[in-house]
Write a structure and sequence with these properties.
This protein has 517 residues and is an alpha+beta fold. The N and C termini lie far apart (87 Å).
C-alpha cells in the first residue's frame, strides 16, 4: 500500500483559512468602527484576500490532481504534465507570488505607518495627546518658577482641621498669599504652593481675627481660646512672617473683627476702647474711650483716616478720626433707631454697610463725602435682588464688596438662594451702573491689579469684567478634566500669572487652597 501523502495543499489550505479569518476580522472591525482601511492598509488587505483566493484555488487543483492519479505518484515518468495537476501547480506558484507581494506591501506599510499616524489628511496631529489631555495628566503640584509655565491647577494645599472649621481672612502679597486658618497664619508661594512662612496659633488657641489688608509690610492677627475672648494681638511682618510684637488684650478683647492697619499705625477696637499702636514696636500712640452708653461696632483705617461706627443706645453714628493722632475730624448720625450690625466697606471714599434690627429700619450701603455728608443709599435688598455684604451684615452671601472708580460692586441673589449676578452702583447718585448675569453661581469677588473686576464661578472659571461697563473682558477656564472642589465660602486672590482660591470653610474636606493658571 502506498501511504497517503499530505503535501503543500493541506498546509496551504490551513494557512489560507487562518489568513482569511484574520483579514475578515480586520475588515469587520473597520466596518463596525465606521472607518474602512485606507492607504497601505487597504493595499495589504486586498493582497491578502487575493492571496487567500489563489491559495485556495491552488489547494483545490492539487487535491484534484492527487485524486485523479489514485492518490499516489503518477505512473507517467515524462516531464510533461497536463490536466488538473498542471493547473494546480500553476495556481500554487501564483499563490506563492501573491503572498510574497502581500508580505512586501505589509513591510512597506509597517515602515511608513509612523508618519501616517502623526498627521491626518488635514495636517492635524493625531498620534499625540491634545493640549487638554496633557494639562489634565500633569495637573499635579509642581515646582514652577511662575504660574504662566505651570499646568491649569499647579498645586493644592490639603484640607486642614475638622468639618465646619472656618478661616478668618487672607492677604494678597504679590507672589505670596497668606491665609488665616484656624491653626494659624500660613503664607504660600503663589507659583508652587510651598509654605514660605507661618505663624502657628498656640496650643488650644485658634486664629480669630485678621486685618482686612496690610500696609508698609505689616498686618495684624489675633487668636484666643475656645469660648474665650479674642484677646491676643500680634503684628506680623509679611516678608518673612516675623512677629514684630504681641499684646494681651484685657476685658472682652477685640470687638468682632475690628482691627486694621493704616500706614504705620495699628488700630483696634477692644473692650470699649479704640487704641492705636506703632506697627513696628507696638507702642501705644493714642486711645479713644467710647462715651458712656456707646460701643464700637466696626472700624477700618488707611494711613490718614480711621472710620469708626459706634452704637449709642438705639442710635448709631459714624466718626472719622485722624489715624496718626486720634483727633476727631467729623461725626455723622446714621439713620438707625434700633440695635444694628455694621461694617466699614471703604475708608476713602467712605462707605459703610448697616443692617438694623427694625425690619422697617435701615438695611443699606451708605456713602459719605470727605466732610461726612451723606451721598448715596443702596438698599441691601431691591430690584436687583439680595446684595452681598460683609459677614454679619444683611441676609445675602458674605462678601466684601469692591469700591473703585466711583462704583460699589457686589453680588446679588435673584430667584435663588445663591448669587448669580454682579451689580455695580454709582457712588454719586446710588443708581445702578451695570449688571452682569451668569448662569453659574458666583462664588468670590476680587479686584485685578489692572483695574478689572474678577469673579470666581462655581466651575472654577475666573471671569474678568470691564469695571466701567460690566462686559466680559476675559474668561479664564482651567483646561483640565479634574478640578479641586470649591467650598461654600471661597476667596479669590489675583497673583502673578493666575489666581489662588482659598476655601475658608471646611465642608467636605476641600483643599485649603489651590492655584488656577
Amino acid at each position: 500500500m502506498i501511504p497517503e501523502r499530505r503535501g503543500p495543499s493541506t498546509g496551504a489550505a490551513a494557512l489560507s483559512g487562518a489568513a482569511f479569518g484574520a483579514a475578515a476580522v480586520f475588515l469587520g472591525a473597520g466596518v463596525v468602527a465606521g472607518d474602512w482601511p485606507t492607504g497601505w492598509a487597504a493595499v495589504v488587505c486586498a493582497l491578502v484576500l487575493t492571496a487567500v483566493g489563489v491559495t485556495v484555488r491552488a489547494a483545490a487543483g492539487r487535491t484534484a490532481a492527487t485524486r485523479d492519479s489514485g492518490g499516489g505518484p503518477s505512473p507517467d515518468k515524462t516531464d510533461t504534465v497536463t490536466g488538473p495537476a498542471a493547473s494546480g501547480r500553476s495556481s500554487f506558484v501564483a499563490a506563492v507570488v501573491v503572498w510574497a507581494v502581500a508580505v512586501l506591501a505589509a513591510g512597506i506599510w509597517a515602515a511608513t505607518s509612523g508618519d501616517d499616524d502623526e498627521r491626518d489628511g488635514g495636517g492635524t496631529a493625531k498620534g499625540r495627546p491634545s493640549a487638554s489631555a496633557q494639562s489634565s495628566t500633569s495637573a499635579r503640584p509642581t515646582a514652577a518658577s511662575s504660574l504662566d509655565a505651570a499646568p491649569a491647577v499647579p498645586w493644592t494645599v490639603p484640607a486642614v482641621g475638622q468639618k465646619y472649621d472656618e478661616g478668618v481672612g487672607s492677604w494678597g502679597l504679590g507672589p505670596t498669599v497668606a491665609q488665616g486658618r484656624i491653626d494659624g497664619l500660613f503664607a504660600y508661594d503663589a507659583a508652587e504652593g510651598s509654605v514660605r512662612w507661618s505663624v502657628p496659633a498656640p496650643t488650644r488657641e485658634a486664629l480669630c481675627a485678621i486685618s482686612p489688608d496690610t500696609e508698609e509690610g505689616i498686618g495684624l492677627i489675633a487668636h484666643g481660646r475656645h469660648e474665650k475672648p479674642c484677646a491676643t494681638l500680634l503684628a506680623v511682618r509679611t516678608s518673612d512672617g516675623k512677629v514684630m510684637w504681641q499684646r494681651k488684650l484685657g476685658g472682652t478683647g477685640l470687638v468682632g473683627n475690628a482691627l486694621a492697619v493704616g500706614g504705620t499705625t495699628a488700630v483696634t477696637a477692644e473692650d470699649g476702647t479704640v487704641r492705636a499702636r506703632s506697627t513696628e514696636s507696638g507702642e501705644q500712640r493714642w486711645q479713644r474711650t467710647a462715651p458712656k452708653g456707646c460701643l464700637p461696632l466696626a472700624l477700618d483705617a488707611d494711613a490718614t483716616r480711621t472710620l469708626l461706627v459706634e452704637q449709642c443706645g438705639k442710635g448709631a453714628r459714624l466718626l472719622a478720626l485722624d489715624t496718626r493722632t486720634g483727633t476727631q475730624r467729623w461725626s455723622r448720625d446714621l439713620p438707625v433707631e434700633s440695635t444694628a450690625t455694621a461694617s466699614v466697606v471703604s475708608v476713602a471714599p467712605a462707605v459703610v454697610a448697616v443692617d438694623e434690627a427694625d425690619a422697617r429700619g435701615t438695611h443699606a450701603f451708605l456713602g459719605f463725602d470727605d466732610k461726612g455728608a451723606p451721598t448715596v443709599s443702596v438698599p441691601l435688598s431691591g430690584p436687583e435682588g439680595v446684595l452681598s455684604a460683609p459677614e454679619g451684615v444683611g441676609d445675602g452671601r458674605a462678601v466684601r464688596p469692591l469700591v473703585r472708580d466711583g462704583l460699589l460692586v457686589t453680588f446679588a441673589e435673584r430667584n435663588s438662594m445663591v448669587p448669580d449676578r454682579i451689580v455695580a452702583y454709582s457712588l454719586k447718585d446710588g443708581r445702578k451702573a451695570w449688571a452682569h448675569d451668569d448662569e453659574r453661581q458666583t462664588m468670590a469677588l476680587a479686584a485685578e491689579p489692572d483695574g478689572r473686576v474678577a469673579y470666581l464661578g462655581s466651575d472654577a472659571s475666573v471671569t474678568l469684567l470691564d469695571p466701567a461697563t460690566g462686559r466680559t473682558a476675559t474668561v479664564l477656564k482651567p483646561d483640565t478634566a479634574e478640578l479641586p472642589p470649591i467650598s461654600i465660602a471661597p476667596e479669590l486672590l489675583p497673583v502673578p500669572g493666575g489666581h489662588v482660591v482659598l476655601n475658608q470653610i471646611n465642608m467636605q474636606a476641600e483643599p485649603s487652597a489651590f492655584a488656577l493658571r
